[in-house]
Design a protein that fits this description.
Layout: E1 11-14, H1 22-34, E2 39-42, H2 49-56, E3 62-65, H3 69-83, E4 86-90, H4 94-98, H5 100-108, E5 113-117, H6 144-149, E6 156-159, H7 165-175, H8 201-215, E7 220-224, H9 227-230, H10 234-244, E8 247-250, E9 265-268, H11 276-283, E10 287-291, E11 312-316, E12 320-323, H12 338-347, H13 379-389, E13 395-399, H14 403-408, E14 419-420, H15 431-441, E15 447-453, H16 454-460, H17 464-469, E16 475-479, H18 503-509
Parallel strand pairs: 1-5, 1-6, 2-3, 2-4, 4-5, 7-8, 7-10, 8-9, 10-11, 13-14, 13-15, 15-16
Antiparallel strand pairs: 11-12
Helix pairs in contact: 1-7, 3-5, 3-15, 8-12, 10-12
Amino acid sequence: MFEKPNNAHEKIVGCLPKNKNRAKSHALIQALVRRGVKTVYGVPGDFVLALFKRFEDCPEIETVCTAGEEGAAFAADAEAHLNGLGVVMITYGVGALKILNVIGGAHAECSPVLVISGAPGINSDRKGDSQPLIHHSVYQPGDFQTCMFSEVTVASASLNFAATAVQDIDMDCKVLPFPISSVSSSMIPDHLNLENLLTSEVHKERATILLDWMRSKERPVVLAGVHIQRYKMQHMFLRVLEREGWMCATSLTGKTRIAESHPLSLGIYNGAMTSEAVIEDIQNSDGILMIGFPIQDIDTGMFTMNIPKEKLARVDMKSGLTWAYSNDEETKDELLLPQLLLKVWGEAASPRQKSFQRPSLSPKRPQGSFIPKECETTLTRVVEAVGSALVDENTVLLAEVGDSLFASASLHLPFENSFLTSGFWCSLGFALPGAIGAWYAKNKHSRPLVLIGDGSFLMSAIECAPLARYNVPAIVIVLDNEGYGTERPMIDGEFNDIQPVDHAKLAEAYMGSRKHIV
């Protein structure tokens, strides 16, 4: 079930308000414990209160309550980015529909999040003259909630009968990405098991030809996308990269999928929005492999990548190998997907000679220390200060969509998997609650660093309260450009203005320990 993940996310529907449902909740919790889940994020509500109590009594899993349901889902999404699974728990109807946006984003970004929802009961949807409506429901027969989530998940199931709950969960463990779930992304193991990946002779032949092509180039370069991490291929990928000695740039959303301190790292390649040094590295290359790199607007600099087809070979999760020198059309079963390519390459003999590791023109580290001075506060200066003073081995940077995301491209992050963003779905509100999920995902050993605009902060500031409640040591930097600054160059008007807010006092109201205005 791990060979070919679909696009992204998960949901459980269960009715758990009565004692007779204890078997269902126990089976569910034990299934999560077996999967290694240590944290569940959520907001309590009437139809899920009993389940919250059961989780609270479970010593293996900590229940983290955020200020709002959307924040809980974003926190679970952030943990999924880092650990391969996040779990959010909410009540039926009003709670579930509030997170539909987040689940849609996780589905789009291949982030496996499991949504556990309470429900009023299996007979409550039999509407008629003698059956009163239950609150949180809508005027239509059937389970409207499951229908809506089915559009943004890959699987769903209901726990209806206590007597069969354990069997239902065990069955779903075998056939679904996660037990009894609506899933926006299939589950992937921590590292892909090479022995379990089945490669055909066609796969081996095409992969070998492509490897010979890359080895024949004088200046080969690899462009790695976020799917290298989402589909748990980093270990295989880095091993091949180091054996061959190929230089590598990542997409913007794939930032730090190879540590930016690694000698083979070029940094970020983002089309015309890339630094001149990296653009020169790409332009001078005579063979480019793009792997696990979904072609979307944010990661391509609004489709400004200009790589000649004869230089480029693409291997992605949707289309397999796309290459000017590939003669045959691939059938669905013969698609050379990234993990199959890496398996064949991982088993290949070492090259007679590694590619020449030329020094990149792209700086690997900030040049010198940051020097405070009396001058205008600019985004460039803020990024320089952050990179010099705040980034260390414990940092996980969460960049909100907009100026914060684009500015972070130039920020040197020396450690692997230390950058998170909602860079394709582009939903405002991810970064602040995402800091909670990032902290728990790293077993409370990380220091989340949030770059967020004033518009997004206004949407999600209530999640500062759980940051304080759970003692998350986050540093939150609000870039106040007096409104929706990214939108102003598109079409400007008073609709892009927002009410001025004293962010320092707001942080103090939420019991932030320290606050400063620059």
